[in-house]
């Protein structure tokens, strides 16, 4: 197991707060920040648009980052598209797939709005959507997915880990099932990449979207979209960098991934993301996963023992602990924790209103753990929440 206290030295803000909101965004380590600063100070040129030394250096570093990210996810660089976030990646699929009226999509109640709204919007084009419910702990049964299939089902869109429950979905077996019916699968990996081992060749899903600023520890404005068969899609955006020839009336797009990356990308962000992925690799994802599971399950167990607290999610949760304090609104709980103990937690519907309504509450407090959190921080959280009993008794 790695030395969590040594790791914390690379995240200066952790000296100021108890940061338990890594499901929303993780902190970025010093080496990744330094890599971005180096870009601005030493070789700030555009990507793929020049023969001079700065442009060459920027392009080489950007593509090196792509190779690092692809290796980390066990994917081919040519199928690894760099986006600005998970949302953009999912929308790219929704806007690029050759849908026909009557086509059918299966998704779940557990989805983040980013993996729900793009599919609901397709209803305007005649695409039908079925939303499958999980069990009370946030697990989707594979058989319930199969029961939703029709002859026109073209896609299953499902999260790998619920950002509300912290429950892990069986996406590997869901993918095997879907492929037997000729159905493609999109996995929202925003909460899995970097938090648990992910091999895209092993999962064998058709699309996998994730963010740079969550488990990969990268900066905001970066993301990754894996496309197993790029030729099945049209490019959602066209423009500079995506085209190989234009005759004034027609154009020819570059092969993947360039055809999906029109315009100047977030060059320093991607370079920083590549460095943060190397940082995660060096520590080891299995070690990070074990550490986060230990902390989150201990926090969930201890919080559930408080009579004025209700905890949601499965016993085999990963690093996410949603809860409510009876008699207090989630936002009030979050503000009190912040103002009295400098504890940063998320409150609200977590961009997943259907999931919150499924729980039959109007919001939850969410504590989420990352590689840099400690057992002492679990103590601080539990003791602070225990102290809220005086406000509700």
From TrEMBL:
Record field: catalytic activity: (sulfur carrier)-H + L-cysteine = (sulfur carrier)-SH + L-alanine
Q: Per its Swiss-Prot or TrEMBL entry, what cofactor is needed? A: pyridoxal 5'-phosphate
**Enzyme kind, highest EC tier:** transferase
Q: What is this protein called?
A: cysteine desulfurase
In its UniProt record, which GO terms are filed under biological process?
cysteine metabolic process
**GO function terms (MF aspect):** cysteine desulfurase activity; pyridoxal phosphate binding
Q: Which residues form the Aminotransferase class V domain?
A: 18-381
Q: Which Pfam families match?
A: Aminotran_5
Task: Note the PANTHER family from the entry.
Answer: CYSTEINE DESULFURASE, CYSTEINE DESULFURASE 1, CHLOROPLASTIC
Where on the tree of life does the source sit, at the highest rank? Archaea
Protein EC: 2.8.1.7
Protein species of origin? Methanosarcina spelaei
What's the family? Belongs to the class-V pyridoxal-phosphate-dependent aminotransferase family. Csd subfamily.
What keywords were assigned to this record? Answer: Pyridoxal phosphate, Transferase
